[in-house]
Amino acid sequence: MRKPLKxxxxxxxxxxxxxxxxxxxxxxxxTQDGRxxxxxxxxxxxxxxxxxxxxxxxxYAHQKLSIDxxxxxxxxxxxxxxxxxxxxxxxxxxxxxxxxxxxxxxxAYGRDTRYSTDETWRVLRRSVQSYAIRSVRxxxxxxxxxxxxEDTVDGVQVLTRLCxxxxxxxxxxxINQVFIPxxxxxxxxxxxxxxxxxxxxxxxxFLPEVYARRDQGDVIxxxxxxxx
Length: 228
Hints:
Elements: E1 25-30, E2 36-41, E3 45-46, H1 50-59, E4 64-67, E5 70-73, H2 74-78, E6 83-89, E7 102-108, E8 116-126, E9 130-137, E10 140-152, E11 155-164, H3 172-183, H4 186-212, E12 219-222
Parallel strand pairs: 4-12
Antiparallel strand pairs: 1-2, 2-11, 3-11, 4-5, 6-7, 7-8, 8-9, 9-10, 10-11
């Protein structure tokens, strides 16, 4: 893990608006062993399908998007302000993600360095209905993130679930009850939930367009004045 951020790189701006946290149904709970569980049922994302989302989670760690002549990592397009870096760790780097693959990414929720994260995640599953990743530190599972998605008549419905904490092991109680409340406090929890709402709603602005151009390969060119 790299050193904590002191200064953020410049944000990107594609002229997109984001939904607010009030537009999602949120549930925050704490398990008996101290793990934090955050669930968000997002408002339907118009113009997006479950097939598009499943494709996206296969390529977002290596795909590049050339938008109006400027090339970006797809991950940085997904959230132009909060996403900072992503890379594949080991294995093949230009094929769709599958269970067992690892990715490392860095974010700063709300562009606030106090809420920056730098984690390496292992893919647990990727299907036409869900995508799940797990972060492990010092042999302990410290977080699991799951997205479930399904088609509706108006677009894709997404349920996101983040569980922060250690599910088992000798240090479970110590980590969950002492360290987790410090490193993932109430303000960071709210910042992450707002960040996630912004991520999911952002798909409506670009995913249908880049998915229609997916045959272009690892660098998709999207001139926003032209049709696919």
